[in-house]
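Predict fold of Ca3427-like PBP 2 domain-containing protein; 296 aa.
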Amino acid sequence: MLRVAYVPEHFSTPLFFAQQQNYYADAGIDVKFIPVIEGTGRLVRLLSDGEVDIAIGLTEGFIADVAKGNDAYKVVGTYVESPLCWAVSTGASRTEITSTKDVLGKKIGVSRIGSGSYIMSFVLGLEHNASKPFFSDFPVLSNFANLRQSVNEGTSDAFMWEYFTTKKYYDNKELKQIGEIYTPWPSWVITARRDVDSTQLGSFVSSVARGIDYFNNHHDEAVTYIGSNLDYSEEDARKWLTTVRFNSGLGSQKLDWDRVVTKTASVLQTAGVLTDSSEEINSRLRSGVEANYAAK
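Predicted 3D structure, encoded as tokens:
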């Protein structure tokens, strides 16, 4: 059995279309999906500790971890080609905060150190050409619910999370949006522990590729699934569909090294997330990212 960790958001839809259409069974594999609400930082820990075999999460979190020397797993493919739109939020009653400039030097809530919510704060600081340190503290709050609570209670001053996941909390006036920021790289990747059977991994990747193809050809069904299973309105799901592009060449095309690896690592170095020499970072990435992975 393959234990697959994922974030239970709209991006997971092709994974479950593949399950509903029996693509995993057709490929002869048994898959157990493990939802991880805490995000990519938690996915990294589960992989590292051997509690899951495969994880699907944000590019920047995995690239940063591999570049720092974690060799428990490899990046084996790009799952989502389009960039991710991160909404920058504060509490609805925080009248002193009206823009992203207002949080420079203040506390940015994150799910975990090393998570996407943590890394993108550095990208935000770079966009403002701010002086380092960009922010005074990074309260670690584990999950989205705690992050929302923190900006209303004052534990943190702002946080970043995917826009469409956050939007309902703007609509119900729990949060206030003060900006947004896009990843400068393709947003989601598939990773696998090094000891995972290569044939099973190839079968999983091929099945997900079929799930992506099904998703691309059944948008109305995707909207219904997202609205019924993932706590999004169908209106928001339709808007999201116009922004997302899954990797239709998953398992059959070479990974775009410059966009996925070089660009991400460069920004992480500039932001100070990666501090080792470029030579050491590049060596670790060459070992930990499968540029030419092909599903068997």
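Residues 104 and 135 are 6 Å apart (CA to CA).
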